[in-house]
Amino acid sequence: MSQTKDTIKSLRKQNDDLKNEIDTLRDEFRKFQDSVASKGNSHDAQIFQTPSVETQKSLDYFGNEYDDLNCFSKTAKQQISHLEPRLAEIADKVEPVSNSIDEAQEYSYSYNVKVVGIPHLKQKESARDKSDLCIKIFHEMGIAHRVPTRKMNDNQPKPIICKFTHGVLLESNLWQ
After folding, report:
1. Gene3D superfamilies under this entry (predicted)?
2. Which range among 5-9, 45-49, 75-79, 129-133 has the greatest average pLDDT?
3. Rounded CA separation 59/67 (Å)
4. Given a cut of 60, is residue 43 above it in pLDDT?
5. SS3 of residue 145 by DSSP
6. Per-residue pLDDT tens for 71-113?
7. Gap between the Cα atoms of 14 and 36, Å rounded
8. Which candidate, 9, 62, 71, 72, has a CA 20 to 30 Å from the CA of 79?
9. Cα separations (Å) of 90 from 13, 71, 77, 86?
10. How many CB atoms lie within 10 A of CB 175?
């Protein structure tokens, strides 16, 4: 029972770490996009005058630098556009894992009791019928339902699974 709890806790921590990493990557992408955009805008805003020979050489040098920066900007934007879908894909994969962890914890057998050998009261028993049958033993039970066994034997009744409203009951003095 505690191994399942430890496994769920470990999975939840790993899932939370992945979510934090995704958020960090998204923030870094936004900052990088803003940086690339601001560098491109600052170069576009420069005002040029009629150049002298020395100024022309400087302008040629800066023009080449600008072309390199512009090429880098385009490449960076392409890489970002390729990475964004991958980041979204990873985020989409993390969400079902998170939901599975929540669901596993919610319906964990560590908070259930399997009662074997109790005969059926009637052909179609409601959850309430099964709960009433077990209530003499379990006063804080939430839901009960019958489940098929792995070895189908028509001579034996199906076991009843009892889900407690609070997992704390299993750790209380009820069993001592």
Report:
1. 1.10.287.1490
2. 75-79
3. 12
4. no
5. strand
6. 988 888 888 888 888 888 888 888 888 887 777 766 666 566 6
7. 33
8. 62
9. 17, 29, 20, 6
10. 8
The answer to whether residues 60 and 87 belong to one domain is: yes
For the segment 107-132, the average pLDDT, to the nearest whole number, is 73
Q: Could you tell me if 142 and 132 lie in one domain?
A: yes
* Whole-structure pTM value: 0.33
175: pLDDT strictly greater than 50: no
DSSP letters for 83-132: HHHHHHHHHHHHHHHHHHHHHHHHT-GGGEEEE-SPPPSSSS--HHHHHH
Contacts of the segment 90-99: beta carbons below 8 A, 24+ positions apart = 90/18, 90/22, 91/22, 94/15, 94/18, 94/19, 94/22, 97/11, 97/15, 97/18, 98/15, 98/19
Share of residues in the chain with pLDDT > 90 (%)? 0
Q: Are residues 76 and 94 in the same domain?
A: yes
Contact 167, 104 (CB under 8 A): no
Query: For the chain, what is the domain count?
Result: 2
Starting at the edge strand that comes first in sequence, how are the strands of the sheet with 141-146 ordered? Answer: 112-115, 160-164, 141-146
The two tokens of residue 93 are: 């994969």
Q: Tokens 């576009």 appear where?
A: 44
